[in-house]
């Protein structure tokens, strides 16, 4: 097949030559996503055996904070170790953390294991998005991103079911062994299929102050979602907001930055793209509460309630794999703007359903509305990710920008969890009012996301130019550099 024919190939078969690479990239994200939801299901059983009830919530907090730290270091890790060694480091940390969790005699040891797991998982998630723009030709970025993103949905569906089964069998430790074994298999495959990238020479210092502020902000958000008392929640939310604003100010002025330089350039579209991604992904935090609503309002059994909680991820995964068929610039802009509109519509529709219905009818309505919201994320996310990768011609900045995608996701989840916790707690003890607060609050936030999407589609060059290998099979976007797998 000639290079021109390869550009013209737009179906999923175009990824076939990259099957090995995509297996490692998608597999790395899968083990990271699977572990998040697997551990949530296992923690009650773990606490019953090893104690540490007061530290329960820190199992998630430690993982998220460590993942944020790792995700912000992707470009530096790749610059020093190159692709294969970077992946082996990520898998190695993940395996070490998983095995430490599996043998933990007390909660404190399990938390150390979770932090090490988070470092590995953050590396794997960040490397996946970064390697898409390094290892794949540009006309495959959308499909690569869609496939990798779909793994979050797979983790949401499989994690709770597998975790619940193993917990019921009294084998919660085995879950961490399974996660380690899966990562080990991918680690063996990685050197055989990944392209080797050159080391990047950089004199930028480590952004310790920026990173500290970011981690402190995320930690404050995470803690705000688990503390009791409205005053403490308000204090932590304000502290988090201040820390994140200071982070942006400090990072912008720093020589060594967490975010790419292009983020702070005049008229750069990157802040708007990141904001749009952040708001879209925030809707996923609904999944933490809908199982509770389903059980208490409709008497759903735990398994059915768990699948109700996965409706947004199911819609995201399926639609994300389909939306990449949008090839023209106009179609991609419609996907982004229409996707954010569907997110808002699904959440506000859930609010309306809860206001006029109850019990089984309300739960059935939620399932449909939340699939719609998830479909909106799936429509927009692949094209927003490609817009990030296409935001600069500099490969180093493009890699750093791509690594910012999972960082943005993690920050969005922490921010969303804290906000959702405040909204739900404000409605309790009425579970009906708690549901209305949650759906309405996140729906209003999604409307703000529609505004951010409007700015994004007008400014992001990745959504303005025709893709490589466009409808006529010719290169219609010569201004956007195609990055080779091996520099």
UniProtKB/TrEMBL annotation:
Keywords: Membrane, Transmembrane, Transmembrane helix
Membrane spanning residue stretches: 21-43, 55-75, 87-109, 115-133, 145-166, 172-194, 206-226, 232-250, 271-294, 300-322, 334-357, 363-389, 410-428, 434-457
Domain Major facilitator superfamily (MFS) profile as annotated: residue spans: 21-461
InterPro entries cross-referenced by the UniProt entry: MFS, MFS_dom, MFS_trans_sf
Location of region: Disordered: 465-487
Residue stretches of biased makeup (Polar residues): 476-487
PROSITE patterns: MFS
GO cellular component, one term: plasma membrane
Entry membrane topology: Multi-pass membrane protein
Protein's cellular compartments: Cell membrane
Gene3D superfamilies named in the record: MFS general substrate transporter like domains (1.20.1250.20), Multidrug resistance protein D (1.20.1720.10)
Gene Ontology molecular function, alphabetical: transmembrane transporter activity
Major location category of this protein: membrane
Superkingdom of the source species: Bacteria
Name the record gives this protein: MFS transporter
Organism the protein comes from: Epidermidibacterium keratini
């Amino acid at each position: 097949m000639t290079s021109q024919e390869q550009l013209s190939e737009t179906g999923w078969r175009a990824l076939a030559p990259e099957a090995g690479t995509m297996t490692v990239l998608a597999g790395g994200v899968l083990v990271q996503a699977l572990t998040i939801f697997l551990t949530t299901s296992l923690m009650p059983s773990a606490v019953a055996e090893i104690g540490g009830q007061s530290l329960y919530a820190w199992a998630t907090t430690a993982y998220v904070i460590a993942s944020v730290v790792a995700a912000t270091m992707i470009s530096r890790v790749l610059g020093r170790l190159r692709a294969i060694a970077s992946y082996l480091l990520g898998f190695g940390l993940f395996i070490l953390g998983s095995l430490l969790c599996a043998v933990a005699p007390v909660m404190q040891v399990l938390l150390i294991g979770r932090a090490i797991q988070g470092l590995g998982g953050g590396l794997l998630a960040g490397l996946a998005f970064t390697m898409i723009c390094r290892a794949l030709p540009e006309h495959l970025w959308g499909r690569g991103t869609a496939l990798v993103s779909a793994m979050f949905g797979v983790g949401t569906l499989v994690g709770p079911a597998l975790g619940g089964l193993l917990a019921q069998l009294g084998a919660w430790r085995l879950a961490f062994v399974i996660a380690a074994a899966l990562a080990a298999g991918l680690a063996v495959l990685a050197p055989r299929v990944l392209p080797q990238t050159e080391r990047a020479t950089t004199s930028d210092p480590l952004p310790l102050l920026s990173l500290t502020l970011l981690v402190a902000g995320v930690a404050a958000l995470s803690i705000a979602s688990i503390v009791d008392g409205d005053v403490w929640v308000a204090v932590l939310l304000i502290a988090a907001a201040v820390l994140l604003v200071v982070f942006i100010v400090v990072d912008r002025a720093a020589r060594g930055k967490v975010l790419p330089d292009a983020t702070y350039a005049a008229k750069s579209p990157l802040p708007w793209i990141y904001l749009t991604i952040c708001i879209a992904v925030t809707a996923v935090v609904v999944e933490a509460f809908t199982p509770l609503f389903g059980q208490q309002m409709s008497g759903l059994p735990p398994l059915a309630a768990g699948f109700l909680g996965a409706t947004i991820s199911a819609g995201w995964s399926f639609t994300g794999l389909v939306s990449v068929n949008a090839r023209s610039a106009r179609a991609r802009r419609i996907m982004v703007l229409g996707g954010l509109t569907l997110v808002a519509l699904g959440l506000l529709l859930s609010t309306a359903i809860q206001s006029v219905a109850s019990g089984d009818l309300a739960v059935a309505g939620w399932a449909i509305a939340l699939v719609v919201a998830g479909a909106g994320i799936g429509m927009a996310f692949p094209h927003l990710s490609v817009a990030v990768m296409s935001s600069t011609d500099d490969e180093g900045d493009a890699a750093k920008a791509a690594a910012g995608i999972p960082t943005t996701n993690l920050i969005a989840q922490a921010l969303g969890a804290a906000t959702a916790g405040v909204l739900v707690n404000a409605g309790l003890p009425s579970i009906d009012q708690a549901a209305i607060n949650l759906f309405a609050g996140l729906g209003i936030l999604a409307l703000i996301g529609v505004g951010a999407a409007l700015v994004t589609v007008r400014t992001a060059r990745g959504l303005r130019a025709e893709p490589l290998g466009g409808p006529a099979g010719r290169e219609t976007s010569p201004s956007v550099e195609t990055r080779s797998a091996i520099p």
